[in-house]
Structure formats: structure tokens, C-alpha cells
Q: What sequence folds into this?
């Protein structure tokens, strides 16, 4: 459970550490505001993808399902700055599919946590494998990291791309090629 009071106290300390006057008008409500915002942007800490992927439908045709361009916003756990972009989620069903919106929900569950893009990519694929028991899954994420673009190397617009394969996608160049072709790459 997110502890609002702790977050508020922490933000106050952070501001004091920066030499700010926490009692000036503009900052007075900031700790409370951030605590409320964290409750929202880190809500995934208290959710599991099972809530979304447990309801499935039977299919007889096991062609690839690809949900592409799922826009997400996440927070880099190294800097607590946003990274955001698009997730592309594919799987080959083995008799069961999930509702399409549930794939986006699954992305959201994991994006709304302190995260690493590499882990986010793998967690989405693993959740599909666990809940839908498909023949295989492939997930690709492309994202811009504010910790790269507003500090340090400062390369605005640079994208970090990660992908993982599971099950029948692994070591199957034809399936992987189908994935990239369906994405239009
Ligand atoms: Zn970072």
C-alpha cells in the first residue's frame, strides 16, 4: 500500500535538500500533490496482470495476434524520471485468446511501477506466457527516456528499443520476420 505521509515527508526533505523554502506559496501543496500523483503513476505496484488476462475466449485458428502501438508512460527506477513510448505485443495462441484491450491493460500494470525498460518488456511477455499459455510470445518496446534527454548525454528524440521472444518465437526467424513485417518495419 502506498504510504502518502511518507512520500509527503520525503518530498519536503527533497525540496529542503535543494535549498528551497518549502513554505513558499508555490511549494506549499507540492508534497501532497506528488503523493497523490504517485498513487496514480505507481498504481501497478498493487495490481497483477491476472486480473486482466484471466478471462479468455476459445479459438480454433491459432494465427498470430499482434496489438501494436500501445502507448505507455513509465518511470525509470534509476532516476525517477519518465520514459514513454509504444509497446507492441504479439502471441501465437494455443486455443485461447484474451480480449484485445487486456493486452494494453497488462502493459499498464507493469508500466505503472518504478521500472527498467528491459524488465518491462520481459514482464509483459512472461505474463502472457503464464496466463494464456500460448505457443509463444514476442514483445517490442520503443521508448524515450527523460534521463537520457534532459540530462547527461542529452539526445532528444533518441529511442531505446528492446524486445524479447518466448516459446515458439525463440530461434524461429520466420515468425520473428512476420512480427516485424506486421509492425511495418
Ligand atoms: Zn534513468
A:
Amino acid at each position: 500500500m502506498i504510504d502518502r505521509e511518507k512520500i509527503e515527508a520525503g518530498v519536503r526533505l527533497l525540496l529542503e535538500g535543494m535549498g528551497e523554502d518549502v513554505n513558499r506559496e508555490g511549494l506549499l501543496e507540492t508534497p501532497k500533490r506528488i503523493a497523490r500523483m504517485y498513487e496514480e503513476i505507481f498504481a501497478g505496484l498493487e495490481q497483477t496482470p491476472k486480473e486482466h488476462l484471466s478471462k479468455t475466449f476459445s479459438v480454433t485458428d491459432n494465427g498470430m495476434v499482434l496489438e501494436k502501438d500501445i502507448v505507455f508512460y513509465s518511470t525509470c527506477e534509476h532516476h525517477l524520471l519518465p520514459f514513454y513510448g509504444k509497446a507492441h505485443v504479439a502471441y501465437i495462441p494455443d486455443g485461447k485468446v484474451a480480449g484485445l484491450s487486456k493486452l494494453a491493460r497488462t502493459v499498464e500494470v507493469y508500466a505503472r511501477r518504478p521500472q527498467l525498460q528491459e524488465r518491462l518488456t520481459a514482464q509483459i511477455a512472461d505474463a502472457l506466457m503464464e496466463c494464456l499459455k500460448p505457443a509463444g510470445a514476442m514483445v517490442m518496446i520503443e521508448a524515450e527516456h527523460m534521463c537520457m534527454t534532459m540530462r547527461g548525454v542529452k539526445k532528444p528524440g533518441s529511442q531505446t528499443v528492446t524486445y524479447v521472444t518466448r516459446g515458439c518465437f525463440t530461434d524461429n526467424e520466420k515468425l520473428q520476420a512476420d512480427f516485424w513485417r506486421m509492425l511495418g518495419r
In short: The chain has a mean pLDDT of 95. The first strand starts at residue 56 and ends at 58. The helical segments are 4-17, 25-28, 30-41, 50-53, 100-111, 117-132, 146-149, 173-183.
